[in-house]
Amino acid sequence: MGYKDKLSTFSLYEELNVNKTKIAAAFDKPASDPKNNFASASEEPEFGPKKEPEVKPLVRLPVGVDLAKKYIQVCFKDPVTGKIINKQLTRAQFAKFLAGSKYGPMMVGMEACGTCTYWGHFCLDHGHIPVILPAQLVHANNTGNKDDANDARCIWRLLFLPDIETKKIRLRSTDNQDLMSMMKLQESLAKIETQIENIVRHYLLERGVTSNKGAESVMNSLKKYCEDTIEVLGLENERSAMLSVVSSSFCGLMKANISSEQAITDYIISWAASNEKCKLLMTIPYVGPIAAAAIAIYMEDPSYFKNGRQFTALCRMVPYHTGTGGKVEILGIHRNGCSWIKRILFEVSMGMYMRVMKALKEGQNAADGKVPEPLSEWIVNMAKRKPIKKVVCAIAGKLCRISWAVLSSGTPYEQSKSSLIQPSVASPEGKVKSCRTVRKSNFNGVMSSIEAVESFWAAINDEAQQAA
């Protein structure tokens, strides 16, 4: 063995002896020494096998609930017997189960479906925590057949997920729920108005009468057809009597529907004028009272969202993707989601896009080629590369993020921080034009057309009575 080998062997033995001395000294230190890694000789050293952490008992009893109109399925594990109870209750029995719970405060999980908001507030009133879960999550984790017992058991199991707090749906307030119902009713009345208009239009087309677009034009065409028919057939003809009943029914349906829609619209506009959140949102270009009310109602509280992207995702104004093996393909925006908020955002974005395109066209036709007002370079550059609907959807997504930023900060819209068009611009004549829009309503014109048809038949009936 050479000199170097002997030296390295001596150094190794010396290092081992030093380590043994350090370990022995560690065991000889008292338990009160803060530098000691071991509290006592009975405890395990730091480098040894660790004990499993103690499982803390759940403070609230998890309960899975499958809601329905008449019978409600309830699933939970009895903390005394350890038996899983999965039983069916009526609405009265379920209310009694929550109000007089012998298990103390509970964590009640339920699927996001009809009556979940009512039962959620009922749980809060009696000291329970409601957990509303998306239907897609419940359906994806249901391993058995589709029935009430399996659904309740699946919801009960989902309550034990560690990240269940990030998956649950927030419980909206009662006032916010009423406002959302009003917005949905307004959209439904608008669809019914279109349906009535199409029924009258098809009725006239089958008789050789055409009409332009709009309810006012259709009712004017109906009045003209009634006048021509009475002039040719007279009052005693059976067709005239049937036409009187049909046209009166059309006018009654259209009048009642438009009056209800206009009453809801007037209330929303007055509510937006007195709401502080809507006042802030109306500082954004092309966001009027209806759009501001829709955004404020749907968002409810900006603190629910970490950033503007989360609110944009809630409005389904973000593209979804698919892929595997590291290759991801970006697709279009979601077709599901709240239809009325997407429609309103699309209308606002389309108005902004058309304003930019109109200004560009005016600049091209001008002699000096100068655009009459400042534009958004972001919209102009995107319009050169993308189709119109993609541009409009991108503007809608940016509107969602800006709306969240405005409400979360509590400050009005600032043009210097955005790439949209300016809230107001000066025309070549010096007049300041506001880039805010109110939903146009042809209430007065349609009502005048309906009253004209009713007045015509009232005069015909009076004439028939005088002749009799």
Task: Explain the layout of strands and helices.
Blueprint: H1 3-28, E1 61-66, E2 71-77, E3 84-90, H2 91-99, E4 106-111, H3 116-125, E5 129-133, H4 135-140, H5 148-158, H6 174-205, H7 215-233, H8 238-274, H9 276-281, H10 289-299, H11 308-314, E6 319-324, E7 327-333, H12 339-365, H13 377-385, H14 388-409, E8 424-426, E9 432-434, H15 443-467
At a glance:
This protein has 468 residues and is of the alpha/beta class.
The tally of helices reads 15
Evaluate the radius of gyration: 35 Å
The end-to-end span amounts to: 142 Å
Structural class based on helices, strands and sheet pairing: alpha/beta
Strand segment tally: 9
Give the proportion of residues in helices. Answer: 40-55%
Give the CA-based shape.
Answer: globular
Report mean pLDDT, rounded to a whole number. Answer: 81
Proportion of beta-strand residues = 5-15%
Residue stretches low in confidence (pLDDT < 50, at least 5 long) are: 1-48
